[in-house]
Amino acid sequence: MRSLNIAATGMLAQQQNVEVISNNIANMNTTGFMRRRTEFQDLIYQNLRRVGSTSSDAGNIVPSGVQLGLGTKLAAVYRIHEQGNLTATDNTFDLAVQGNGFFQITLPDGTTAYTRDGSFQLSPAGQIVTHDGNPLDPAITVDPAAVDVTINSTGEVLVKLGGQITPTNAGQINLATFPNAAGLEAVGDNLYLETPASGTPTAATAGSTGFGTI
Fold first, then answer.
1. What are the backbone dihedrals phi and psi of residue 97, each rounded to the nearest 5 degrees, phi first?
2. How many whole angstroms separate alpha carbon 170 and alpha carbon 164?
3. 93-142 tens-digit pLDDT
4. pLDDT at position 141, please?
5. How far, in Å, are 11, 17, 82 from residue 39 at the CA level?
6. Are residues 15 and 21 in contact, defined by beta-carbon separation less than 8 angstroms?
7. CA 150 to CA 58: how far, in whole Å?
């Protein structure tokens, strides 16, 4: 019967693998989504004869022991941080990070979340926000009277008002990086939270050393 239990661990592991693959497929068109990869480990072994033990007859060290494996388990679901395809849109506030870094978002409870989803919009108050209305951190407000808005590769939000030739700087979009971005906690809505595994974030202007561009 133990052989059936061992086989069952493999079936469970493959079920979890298929679920991860299915989630990857379901999010093929999700902006900023990072696909996942499953990683497995073998379970503890039962030692019928330990490696390096001696035979009972002549006292010789046996060249190999007898270890029976007890199956496999899902060890981790690893998030693959690789550059996705960039798509041009007609929305000035549709942004993407080319390279390393996350946009910083302020949640309603004041927590800072992080995202690779740069699909931003303007709120009724002129703030640059996510689809759910959460503002960038630091917050940036665009004057409703602006006739032209440009966001350059370093994250400067440049605004022209009527009659202006030279644009003014309305704010700076910074990026954040982590020692171990794979350790971020996914909380849905394309957002991630800092964890002890991710390490403390470092924020800087896009294009700085170690940071991507916008």
1. -95, 120
2. 14
3. 999 999 999 999 999 999 999 999 999 999 999 999 999 999 999 999 99
4. 93
5. 15, 9, 18
6. no
7. 84
